[in-house]
Structure formats: C-alpha cells, structure tokens
Amino acid sequence: MATAAVLQSHNRVEIGSSQLAPASYPDTGPLAAVDANAVAAEWVEQFNSAFAGQEFAAVKTLFSDGAVWRDQLCLSWDYHSLNGPDKITSFLKSTPGGSRLKTIAIDGSNATRKPDLAAVDFKGKVNGVSAFLTVETDVGRGRGLVRLLQDPQHGNKWKAFTLFTAMHELRGYEEMVGGNRPQGVDHGGHVGRKNWQERRIATENYEGDLEPTVLILGAGQGGLTSAARLQQLQVPTLIIDKNPRIGDNWRN
User: Fold this and answer.
1) How do strand 237-240 and strand 214-217 relate by DSSP bridges?
2) Which residue has the higher pLDDT, 185 or 121?
3) At a CB cut-off of 8 Å and minimum separation 6, what does 101 contact?
4) Among 74, 91, 143, 208, which is most exposed with the fewest C-beta within 10 angstroms?
5) How many Å apart are CA 144 and CA 167, to the nearest integer?
C-alpha cells in the first residue's frame, strides 16, 4: 500500500497566504570595538537632516540594499512595508511634503532602551547596533526601533537594515492614564455640579457644543473596541448599528 508523501509545515502554503522570502543579510564580518551610542546618534542626525531638507538621495544612502521600513501611521494614515532604498525614497517622493514624520530621536527613557550591540539575524551571527527611538510627526508621537549594520561595499558605513515606526498618541488627545484620568467624584461646593450619571447622559445626548468627531458603523467587537480606544483619547465618537441593542449581532 502506497503511503502519501508528508509535506513539512514550513513548505505548505495555506489558501490566502504566501511564502515570504527569507532576508538576505550582508556580509558584515566580525565587529571591532564599537560605540553603539555614537553610531546610533550619528545615523539619527543624518536621518533628521535628510528628512528636514527632503533630500531623498541622502535618505537612500541611509538604508542597506535589503532594508525594510515597516510603519504604522507615522508616514501616512495607513500601514506600510517598504522594501529596499528605492521603494522607500519612491514613497517619500510621492507623498506631499515627503511624509507626516518630522523627526526621530534616541529613546533615553531608561537604561534598557539605550543603543546597544545586538544580533539582527535568527542565528546570532550577523551583529550590528540596535536602538529604540521616539518619533515626532505633524499630528502626534510614536516609538520605533532601528537595527544598523555596516555596509562593506561603502566603507563600512552604518546603514539601517530594519526600521520600525509606529504612532502611539495624537497630540492634544493624549490617553487618559495616570494624572490624566477623569475624576469620578468632584468634591466640594460647586453650583450646578453634575454627578457621574448626569455627565454620562449629557455625553450620550451630545448636549451643548459637543459633536461626534468619528462615526463608527457597526456596534460589533471591532466597533466597540475602536470606540473605547477613541474615548481614552478624548475623541467624541458615535456608533450606529441596525440592531436596537448593543450585542444583538451576537444574540442573532
């Protein structure tokens, strides 16, 4: 009786998916004594200078041939995965003003996030400099991570092999945590003071000058989650649904 050939899981391609080509790492060789802080600081300075002047040719020289820049809302109101210096610069040229990203900086919030030597490959044989970043855009702030490798074809110049940037908060709509948390009780004598329920009803009815900034279609899991997050950012949000009660799309 013939036996069916067994296809290993890493060789199977499921319907709707595609195989990703493995990264091609440059031949960097062993690292000599490297000041990770100085390397990261110089690259960040060159990056900001090139972005400020929209010098796209200079931006191109800061990324290695196999570089990938993955961005979540820092470049535009969309997610992007840009492969290679040519696609990175082509995207920047195609957007008004280059992009909404303005500057990046080394994240010095604590010692564990400072630039350091780190392997960038799975086997730990390709070493470079890894640095956490803070990001400033025209509308908010974010965080990022860059991994730098030396390019032996260009005098061992340090270039980005991977860059990740992500928006974390909108300026003027910072998340209500810590000292920004709303007060449930407003103690003391205040004329016309409303309790929590009265304030909640006023918000639900959009009383006064309050108007919804965002309209969400559908009160399912995705809609409710989006509305909750927007509320934490103090963005007035209105959800509409064809069902009379929240959760009816599950009940039905």
Assistant:
1) parallel
2) 121
3) 51, 74, 75, 135, 136, 137, 165
4) 208
5) 9
